[in-house]
Request: fold
Amino acid sequence: MNAVDIIARKRDGKTLTDEEIKYFVDGYTRGDIPDYQASAWCMAVYLQGMTHEEATSLTLHMAHSGDTLDLHGIAPFVVDKHSTGGVGDKTTLVVAPLVAAHGLPVGKMSGRGLGFTGGTIDKLESIRGFHVSLSTEAFLAMLAEHGIVVSGQSADLAPADGKFYALRDVTATVSSMPLIAASIMSKKIASGADAIVLDVKVGRGAFMKTQADAEELALLMIEIGKGVGRQVATVIADMDQPLGNAVGNALEVKEAIEALHGA
Reply:
């Protein structure tokens, strides 16, 4: 088994085995497979797609490329939410504190901006002195103390996704449905939440341009989540215009704080 053969099989529209996907994910994570081969593989996936079985296999191997958290020592039930990305999307900054304030712990590993979308981590970093790079120990301590934690991706949790995430941003493969699903769900599985709400955006300002594509992505992520014992719900939300009145990291944080104060 080698990377070139796996790239060629996906380029030609073949279905990859679980062993082939594991080989590629593990090899790229270790650095044995270089970026240029991983780029070719991402483009092959973008053009040929993946079956649900392939996407599930990719998700699980990405999730288990590093540590996985068990949060039950802190709380019996922890929730998470994730958006597929849009313009002016500051939902996490409002929803997560509201949920935590009602006594339901929120443990969230967020991503950075991808393509034209803004990332929650980039928004939080506009707050002077705000640290988003938390160790596993710090993640757990924040959740235990405050009932809420939103952090960036660490080197310990789903490191394969961190590498593929950055690569997709510079290889025009951001909008690949199986790569989106695997990226989101690998982070959710690794970070240990029991229930996950997925905010799937659709429209001109989203990666999914049609309702049918948004529904297909939502169903794929629900299927992946249920396969590993997670409770998963999805919301398909309009992204034909920016959310709220502010666009830009610091401005969106300001608007979210105003919303939390009832403005």
Observations:
- The chain has two domains: 3-64, 79-157+167-261.
- Residues 79-157+167-261 form a domain with the Pyrimidine Nucleoside Phosphorylase; Chain A, domain 2 fold (CATH 3.40.1030.10).
- The radius of gyration is 18 Å.
- Residues 211-227 form the longest helix (17 residues).
